[in-house]
Amino acid sequence: MRSFVAIPLTDDAARALAAVQRRLDVGRRVPRDNLHLTLAFLGDQPEETLGTLHEELLRIHCEPFAISLSGLGQHGRAVHLAVPETPPLTDLHDRINRAVNRAGISLPRRRFRPHVTIIRLKSGTRLRRLRGEVAGFRYENMPVDHFALFASTLHPEGARYECLMDYPLTASRDFAGS
User: What is the pLDDT along the chain (178 residues), one digit of tens a residue?
Assistant: First the structure.
């Protein structure tokens, strides 16, 4: 099953990003329900392995925190908003990577560049000009109080995501295995 671990956007943040998508008026908008910040793309994994990962993800405990979205950019066919790295976000990313490794999933080593993809462009398309208010878009202090394991099914009109399990962020006195 094609899957990934991500932070879903709040309704308020998703509404704000939908307004940015409309202003850009290029490419194919990522559906509001699909907006997320990927923490680990897992590729195709057997259900048994995802079950093991689920057990590992349940062991993650950390305090809720907030992120900001800004810095409209393009990487390949994806138009995205950057998410500045913060110690809590980096810590959650690292904890998830350790859980993924303990579950027996090998991921390629890549630098963590947190972002939220908002538009997919046709191959070879480049954003030439950004309207002033869109280029300077910022969404501050989106609360992060959970992350989720998603299944991704590819379709001609785009990927469809299904939340398999939600993991609340809660502090714990027992950090063993976190």
Answer: 999 999 999 999 999 999 999 888 788 999 999 999 999 999 999 999 999 999 999 999 999 999 999 888 888 888 999 999 999 999 999 999 999 999 999 988 888 999 999 998 887 777 665 555 577 789 999 999 999 999 999 887 778 899 999 999 986 644 444 4
Domains belonging to the chain, first-starting first, are 2-168 (3.90.1140.10)
75 included as an active-site residue: no
DSSP, collapsed to helix, strand or coil, labels residue 61 as coil
Catalytic residue among 54, 75, 80, 115: 115
CA–CA distances in Å: residue 102 to residues 40, 73, 149, 175, 178: 14, 34, 16, 16, 11
Q: What pTM did the predictor assign?
A: 0.89
Inter-residue contact 84 to 130 (CB < 8 Å)? no
93 catalytic per annotation: no
One-letter amino acid at 63 equals: E
**Catalytic residue among 36, 61, 80, 93, which?**
36
Any idea what DSSP says for residue 33? G
Length of the chain measured in residues:
178
